[in-house]
Amino acid sequence: MPPASALLLALLLGACNATDGDLGRPKPTIWSQIVLPQAGFVAAAGRGEAASYFRFTDDEQQLRDRAWRFIMPASPQSVFQSELSNLIHTRILPVPMQSGDRSDYFRGLTSGSFASQDSRYNRMAEDSNADRQLIGPFRANAMRVVTMDRVRMRTADASAEIAPEKRDPALARVIENEGLILWVCERLDFRIRSYRYALANLVVEMPSRDAIRAERSLMALEAEAGPLCKMPLNGTFYGEGGQGQGDGARRPAVYKG
User: Fold this and answer.
1) What is the pTM of this model?
2) Mean pLDDT of the chain
3) SS3 call for 20
4) Which of 56, 183, 216, 254 has its CA 20 to 30 A from that of 238?
5) Structure confidence at residue 84 as a pLDDT band (50, 70, 90)
6) What's the rounded Cα separation, in Å, for the pair 15 and 26?
7) Beta bridge mates, 20
8) What is residue 253's DSSP assignment?
9) What percent of the chain has pLDDT over 90?
10) What is the pLDDT of residues 94-144, one digit of tens each?
11) Hey, what's the torsion of the CAs at 55, 61, 64, 66, to 10 degrees?
12) How far apart are CA 56 and CA 192, in angstroms?
């Protein structure tokens, strides 16, 4: 087996066997904190994506921790997709490899054992409520990061004390941060569409008055998600004259996890 293939296989096995910590993230180990991120850094740079070697600020690290909920698949039974998302999160694999099938959540919701159809509606309401409660803290965190990135770039452009070789990694970090926010918005929109698909199909297959509660929870989630995905960013991810968050055709978001 070629060395590159052996390394990739080791990375895949290591990611799949990692023990989950808080919020489903791998527990801090040499493997999860050093080996996988460094491999992802090399892989992302090889694909031509922005990649910065700078250390994370406290807010940048917290932003990544808070993003975890939205990046991981919502489906309660999606083990394979969870492991795939782990590899995408470390940038070993590109973001477009993440599932875009909105029926994933419905299949996971209906494949498990539940006492009644009401349990499925309750699970959906609980999932959408949990998402909604985490959006506000993520948005506040994102606003702090965006504000500091403006300061970062103004200083890099204006100060004679900044070495030229630090400007590129500074810009790369701003692009990574903005890409993360855009990625969360993409996955949050995907979650909402997945919940909508699941609710409609549940009502057809197993009508219940509990559908009203699930619908209200989903409407509250949609209302909370709107301000996050309309917040002003620095515009670095798409470059000068690039597209904003509300535009249609966009390349997938990427960032250093």
Assistant:
1) 0.82
2) 82
3) strand
4) 56
5) confident
6) 8
7) 26
8) P
9) 50
10) 888 888 889 999 998 888 777 688 889 999 999 999 999 999 999 999 999
11) 180
12) 30
Token pair for 68:
């975890």
pLDDT of 126 reads 95
How is residue 165 annotated by DSSP?
G
What pLDDT is recorded for position 196?
97
The alpha carbons of the chain give a radius of gyration, in whole angstroms, of 20
- The token pair at 198 is 């699941």
In Å, what is the CA distance from 30 to each residue of 37, 65, 95, 125, 185? 10, 18, 24, 37, 30
| pLDDT beyond 60 at 254 | no
User: Measured between alpha carbons, how far is 186 from 230 in angstroms, rounded to an integer?
Assistant: 12
Per-residue confidence band for 25, with pLDDT thresholds at 50, 70 and 90:
low
Report the SS3 class of residue 26.
Answer: strand
For tokens 């009502």, name the residue: 203
Q: Kindly state the tokens that stand for 99.
A: 């599932």
Contact 146, 175 (CB under 8 A): no
Q: Which amino acid is at 190?
A: F
- The DSSP output letter for 56 is P
Closest to 33 measured CA to CA, from 4, 65, 6: 65
What are residue 26's DSSP bridge partners?
Answer: 20
Averaged pLDDT, 38-56: 86
Task: Return the DSSP state at 95.
Answer: G
Q: What is the spatial distance between Cα 153 and Cα 108, in angstroms, rounded to a whole number?
A: 44
Tokens representing residue 244 in the block = 């904003």
The Cβ of residue 123 has, within 10 Å, a number of other Cβ atoms equal to: 17
Provide, for the chain, the percentages of residues in helix, strand and coil under a 3-state DSSP scheme, each rounded to the nearest 5.
Answer: 65, 0, 30
Give the separation between CA 3 and CA 23, rounded to whole angstroms.
33
* CA-angle at 147, arms to 144 and 150, nearest 5°: 150
